[in-house]
Amino acid sequence: MSVRNKKMLNINSRLRYWKERLGNAIWMLRTGRFKLFLNSIYIEFYPTIEVVKTQLHLDARPESGSAFVDKRKVTHPGFRPTTSQPSLVLVPMADAEIVARELRQILFTLDIREETAP
Amino acid sequence: MTQSLKVSVITVTFNGKKFLEEFFTSLFSTNQHELDVEVLVVDNGSSDGTVAWVREHYPDIRVFENDENNYARALNIGIKHALGDYVVITNNDATVDSNWLQGFLEVFRLDDNIGAVQSKIFFANSQKINSVGVEEIEHFYFRDIGFGRDDTQIYVVPAEREYVTGGSLMLRRECLDDVGAWDEEFIMFMEDVDYSARCRKAGWKLWYSPNSVMNHQYHGSSSEELCEYFCTRNRFLFVAKHFPLELPACIPTSHFYKKGEFDLLYRSLLHGVRKLYASHDTEIVVQVLQMLKSCLPEYIGDVSARIFFSHLEILLGLRKIRVGIYDHAGHFAGGGQRYVAEMAAIMQERYDVTYIFNNDVELSAYKAWFDIDLTPSSMKIIRIPFFEERNRYTPDEGMVLGEPSNPFDIISRETLNYDIFVNANMLGKVNPLSPVSLFVCHFPDQERARFFQVDKYDHLLINGDYTGSWVQKRWQLEPTCKLYPPVNMYNADSTPDKKETIILSVSRFEVSGSKKQSEMVQAFSEMCQQHPDETRGWKLVLIGGSTPGNTYLKFVEEAAASAQCSIEVRANAAVSEIKELYCRASIFWHACGLDEEKPERVEHFGMTTVESMQNCCVPIVIDGGGQREIVEHGLCGYRFSTLEELKSLSLSVMGNQELRRTLSEHAFQRSQLFSHAVFKEKLEKLLDEVELELLGRDLLPGAGVT
């Protein structure tokens, strides 16, 4: 069976998943692992929480001051560069010339519209 | 006699000394019947003394030191040195049961095609399972099989797995040799999932052994935050390698996307496409790029998508780095222009540099003004309609107040054409849209106001601590780099022995009088009247640039003429003349900032002070602005706060030749800090940093800039 076919797509697998999460939660509470319990609740629900948080953050942002919005700059202040460096050696399997041409073409056709600042 | 089987146990540490004793005790208590076990520790740069502790207490253990905290690289180091027919990689925030090693081998005996076997891993001090294998949940997110469950009968028999964890894993040597090194670009987390996929692709089976038991402290040696970050980042690498056409679909399901962390999403996707380029043929790469072109603007916006594809060209090494330097006052020969032209001259050795101006100017002018050759760079003139309509030759951002849109967006749009954008002259309303951006701040003249964009720059350069302190006060921003202006006035003929009784001051004759020449005339005149013996033979020379019809210059000239002492005023002297005076002068005065309250009216750095020090003059300068950073009071000159102090300090230096000599020697040494060589070295270091950012250097949660 391929990996893609093993996704939790049917209701049974979802039920099994939540049953297991519930069993796990009870075990954590019984054994006094409250921190792990809270953490696991956060892991389960954080995508929803974070979507709400992001929206609140965007709503609270002052005027961007430019018609061009660079979404990369919604920065996470806790993240900073480290000394970890990428490998400088890159041995491509693809043809560099064709990929370069494709990228030039993409850049040529990308339309930059002025966006209204959030 | 049975030949013993060689087994290598590799464990990677990072500040894990506290775990090791218990781990080693359990490891050395395992059943090693007919086994020849060697233990290897690879340390990832611990600061808790792990390496020394292991060497002292376990001399038989081989210890290796990794030069960075990269778990996958550490594994490769260990595997390279391991001699075993079977190699175990294991966490050490754990203990192992006595049958740990034998339990692995039991399963290997079932089938020669088994390449790797994982332990049954429990949470420490409980009978709950941590992992009996790894499975995909959805959208290429993975989890441990059995996580948090009871040890029921379904886990008591060996079983084949699609993925295994590297927390406690034995690998057959032939499998390791066949599959090759672990992928170091994963750094940590999911490197085992990737290796599992590679093993299976190469035809090896992965199994789980219920009789090899480990008790693990969950995230004992790493944080939840770190795990979350790397799992989300490495998911892009994994998909790019093994399921390339699924890469675009991974964007909206990514935790980074869901949490609105677009910068992390952007960077991880760059890594992903780089991995794709290295792992697949042209057809696949082009297909994925086209898919990304269609969907990326929807996910991260048109502008960021444009930046992404341009950034890719650099990341894949397909073209040279382009730098855009914007100077809205580049048609004017000022100190700021010279500072940035020095930067441009160094940058053009590595990159394609384009100067962006708003007004007519030729780069050849920089040769005439500053003797800086910018011939290899190109230039572009972009007019700003807002200022053209108002007949304003030089853009003044202070004029932009109630406009509905930002007039400098025309420059922002231009920044999209560069990989590095340098805002050279503090035009704070330009929104940088290049992958990396630098804002050069000579002094924060403007308050934070409408359309303020400075906090969007990746690097904020300052020319000294004085500017830096005002950047913090006015803009609440932290400068990222201090780069003193390069000063080039060294003259080999200048020595402490060849000095004459001259006090020199070099400053423009500002119409506002901010350079305080008239106060210096007054001070010298009073010194001569009050101390005729001590000042006999001494002369004050005031030299500097001036505009035609300068009323202040006239005022100073008149004051000097009526002072009844030797004072020379020379406006617009040739450079050769200034050089000669630096060579002859014993003392240098600088009073800009005297009795001033506004920080703008104080010298922000003080290039002429450094020029004088390079020529062995003794500086006696105002105690304010950038002068505090240049002149160490009492060591290489003096700083004064009042004219009385100026006179008193000057008299003490004038009357003591030995003191003059000592101070001038120290002044010369101190001036080396501000030389062109130091400037070049620091700038190149900064450019190395910037290049690393362009090449996709990683971000880590909570780690400071190192």
Short description:
By secondary structure, chain A is mainly alpha-helical. Chain A is 52% helix and 3% strand. Chain A starts with 10 loop residues before the first helix and ends in a 9-residue tail after the last helix.
Structural description of this entry:
The complex is a heterodimer of chains A (118) and B (706). By secondary structure, chain A is an all-alpha fold. Chain A has three helices and one strand, in the order ααβα. Chain A starts with 10 loop residues before the first helix and ends in a 9-residue tail after the last helix. In chain A, 14% of the residues are buried. With 706 residues, chain B is α/β, with parallel strands linked by helices. Chain B has 25 helices and 26 strands. In chain B, the strands form four sheets. In chain B, strands 1, 2, 3, 4, 5, 6, 7, 10, 11 and 12 form a ten-stranded mixed β-sheet that branches. The interface between A and B is large, with 71 and 90 residues. Strand 1 (79-81) of chain A pairs antiparallel with strand 26 of chain B.
